[in-house]
Fold these 2 entries.
Entry 1:
Amino acid sequence: MKHIAFASILVAIVAALLIVGTRVFPLLPGPATSTQGLMVDALFRWEMYFIAFFFALVVVVTLYAIVAFRRRLGDTGEGHFTRGNMPLEVLWTVIPFIILMSFAGVAAYDLNKMGEPAPDELIVEVTAFQFAFKFHYPQYSVDSTELDVPVGRPIVFRITSLDVVHAFWVPEWRVQQDAVPGTWNDLRITPVQVGDYTVRCNELCGDGHSFMTAPVKVLAPADFDAWVAAQKAPVTPATGAALVAQGQKLAQSSGCLACHTTDGSKSVGPTWKGLYGSEVKLTTGQNVLADATYLHNSIVNPGAQIVAGFQNIMPASYSTLSDADLNALVAYIESLK
Ligand code: CUA
């Protein structure tokens, strides 16, 4: 009886320390900032509490028994023989079963709740491709490479891919969805906190996978309306330095820089530094001048002229860029002397 009381106190202390530990050193990347994420975190927190308790129960009791019931000096007798304990075995089967089924029940309820359509949802169509994301807002006829959304409004993301399987994931929103070519998958999110986040591709999709990100801005509703209005305002085509700056931004948001460097170093694809106006040697042995036409063609039809020393791996998805975007990209490459 003395042993049971003492071991119980030890288990309680270790379990309490572990539970405090999970609060002091959180295992998740920052607090959840979506309704769905808060549900995930609540469930995760309770699972950690139970795991902490059962870890303490098993490990502390084992270590306690090893120390308290060790063979003492001069003790040559046999240990006490036990042939099972039915009530105990029933108990340690039934209790974990009830706990696990309870968690499964809560998880199923949450999962169902997360996928429930809400009235007045904001629809955002997400197109993933190697190695970037594009966002289309059908209710507003707006296209963007940055994901701007209002806080507090339920959003349904309709997600697809142009080439291979990617995944749409904002870590602070917790839940993610696959982007699969030829089909649309839904993901429902209600952001609860204004701030800057990042969409990350969470499916290994090729050389540029780790660079496949897009900026996310969760805005106050009025700021979101202003952003939509700004997107819809007619834009006068940029020229000169503004066009170069636009091209640089596009190179980042479209994933170009995942494979092309701007400092002359070799990467998956040819560097852009000093490319414009240079003679490029192709795999056919032919030399071509890297002028605006060559750069334009190499973006929209990358397989046509392969530079010697490189593989034909650039995705063809950039043919969907607008002429204005292509001009900006070429102007940016031209500026990298
Ligand atoms: Cu797209 Cu990883």
Note: The first strand starts at residue 122 and ends at 129.
Entry 2:
Amino acid sequence: MTFFNLKEILSAEQISDRVIELAKKIDEDFAGQHIVLLCILKGSFIFIADLARAITVPVTIDFLGVQSYNGDTKSSGVVQITQDLTTSITGRNVIIVEDIVDTGLTIHYLINMLLTRNPKTLKICSLLYKPSKVIKPVNIDYIGFTINDLFVVGYGLDYKQYYRNFPGINILEKEENDSI
Ligand code: IMP
């Protein structure tokens, strides 16, 4: 495994401020209603933990395991469900919480799959959005930050399963010595 030096492009504080703004907007849009937040594993586990704690309307949380990257920096284009929801979303207000929308292939697949379960409403919330890479355009209702075509890690996002624990969003820079 090659490790990289990281260069931070969004700090933990910038992310935290934006997450609070997104939560406020969700609170306004769903005032007086309940929501189901869907955590798309693994990348959105940190984002959803912060977002859920900033939302004040009643929420339930469920987890959907999805794999589309084969552990590298290029989308395989094939979306695989590795873990299904454990609760019904029929008739519920559902928000898919994603870490990043890149080609849009994953979110497009998820929307079609979840619509077959007849939710009352289905919205998308993504911390990051890379418009330059979109293959399947989708309407994202809540976007944290729009970024350039860069491979990023941290705040839940990984490269070969590493770097998820970094508090900010970073780009991979030059290689360090191999240590594993
Ligand atoms: P898409 O199907 O190309 O939109 O990719 C969606 C998924 O690919 C995301 O949920 C991430 O797990 C992963 N991904 C896309 N871009 C990045 C990145 O820059 N860093 C880490 N993971 C990424």
Note: The two ends are 5 Å apart (CA to CA).
